[in-house]
Design brief:
By secondary structure, the protein is an alpha/beta fold. The protein has 13 helices and 13 strands. The strands form 2 sheets. Strands 3-2-1-4-5-6-7 form a 7-stranded parallel beta sheet. A 6-stranded parallel beta sheet has the order 10-9-8-11-12-13, sandwiched between helices. Strand 8, helix 7 and strand 9 form a beta-alpha-beta unit. The two termini are 14 Å apart.
């Protein structure tokens, strides 16, 4: 695009777009890279992680605590039919945002997350594009059913859910565009599905590489859907599979597992809790099978796409396929278990007949290239800069 004709854009994010070590950072980075290449971009990082980021003429970082105080949350809760019911306005964020938008007239303003826009005190959303990612009403719905929360916290989320959904959708309808990770969360004409994609797609698998009985799970283990799902898997699925396949091994990758669960998992036969690993590719290379036993949470599970991008036999729960089920087909691209019995049967079958299942990752890998490549993402994002 000719620089002289480029739109002036502002990207406001709480995730450092220069990092790529988590799914959230990867999505931020993809949007940032597109905007940097196709617009005259300023970036405003409300640096909640306090990463060391050097400011430039177009990149501005502020170390800031954006979490509302208890009194601010209580005030927000009485504003029932307001965007501030979702999250309170943040004084410092608002001051910083106004400083930049008063100084420069932006054609487009992109926000990573709806809550970021609310905290910044945005009133006019006509030129605003919000990357919703995981829909707030889906997050609240998931929390209201999470066994990791106390009963009164689950009740609190359940009572807030209708107004969270009402106020969120009211705000998003007023935007120029909003982007969701799950296509099912698009509810109006200005909504666009922007799927999460794997950062790296490996070449087609070498058929000469021998398959093995090493099974892998990867995810941020302090995130409750991940540790709840893995705990269920080890207790109810792995405990049965290991009886028939004593030479199978389960490798759990990701930092932050609760201590009590980590201790329990490591007592299970052939379960290896690796925590954070420097080179994730090495673990992928050593495992032929990836499992995704996720039963709660909002948004989509990028770990499913990543496994197929790495040419792995992928076995997932029905819930984990959410958002991908119109493209990825059970028994064609991967195996989808509707219950524990199916998960056990699929694993036993794969472990007993490894050479029967390469067609799954061959088909799945082709789907990743066709539907979940960076080129596809840029094609979708290009719609948002078309004035």
């Amino acid at each position: 695009m000719d620089t002289a004709k480029r739109l002036k854009a502002l990207f406001v994010t709480i995730y450092n777009p220069l990092r790529r070590d988590t799914g959230g950072h990867q999505r931020t980075s993809l949007i940032y890279d597109f905007l940097k290449e196709n617009t005259d971009l300023d970036t405003l990082l409300l640096n909640v992680s306090h990463d060391k980021v050097e400011n430039t003429d177009n990149f501005f970082s502020y170390d800031i605590d954006i979490n509302p105080s208890l009194s601010e949350r209580l005030k927000g809760n009485i504003k029932l039919f307001s965007k501030y019911f979702i999250t309170p306005k943040h004084k410092k964020c608002t001051e910083i945002y106004k400083q930049y938008t008063h100084k420069t007239k932006y054609d487009l303003i992109y926000f990573r997350f709806m809550a970021t826009a609310i905290k910044c005190g945005v009133e006019d959303f006509s030129n605003v594009i919000i990357d919703v990612d995981d829909a707030p009403w889906q997050v609240h719905k998931s929390l209201s059913n999470s066994h990791s929360l106390s009963w009164y916290k689950r009740l609190y989320c359940k009572l807030r859910l209708p107004l969270i959904e009402y106020n969120s959708k009211k705000l998003l309808r007023s935007c120029k565009y909003y982007l969701t990770a799950n296509p099912d969360d698009v509810f109006s004409e200005n909504g666009i599905n922007l799927p999460n994609i794997p950062m790296y797609i490996s070449p087609e698998c070498n058929a000469d590489i021998p398959l093995n009985k090493n099974i892998m799970f990867v995810g941020l283990m302090k995130y409750y859907p991940n540790y709840e799902g893995m705990n269920h898997f080890i207790k109810h699925i792995w405990s049965e599979v290991i009886k028939l396949h004593s030479d199978a091994n389960l490798y759990i990758v990701g930092r932050g597992a609760p201590d009590s669960l980590a201790e329990s998992w490591q007592k299970s036969k052939n379960v290896h809790l690796l925590g954070f690993v420097e080179n994730l590719q090495d673990v992928y290379d050593s495992c032929s099978i990836v499992v995704t036993p996720i039963y709660s949470g909002a948004g989509t599970n990028i770990k499913v796409l990543e496994a197929l991008a790495m040419n792995k036999i992928c076995i997932v729960s029905r819930f984990a396929l959410k958002g991908f089920d119109k493209i990825l087909i059970n028994k064609e691209d991967l195996l989808v278990a509707n219950n524990d019995s199916e998960f056990i049967d699929y694993l036993n079958s794969v472990l007993s007949n490894l050479n029967k299942y390469p067609y799954l990752y061959e088909n799945g890998h082709k789907k990743i290239i066709e539907f979940y490549s960076k080129e596809k993402i840029n094609e979708i994002l290009n719609k948002t800069i078309s004035m």
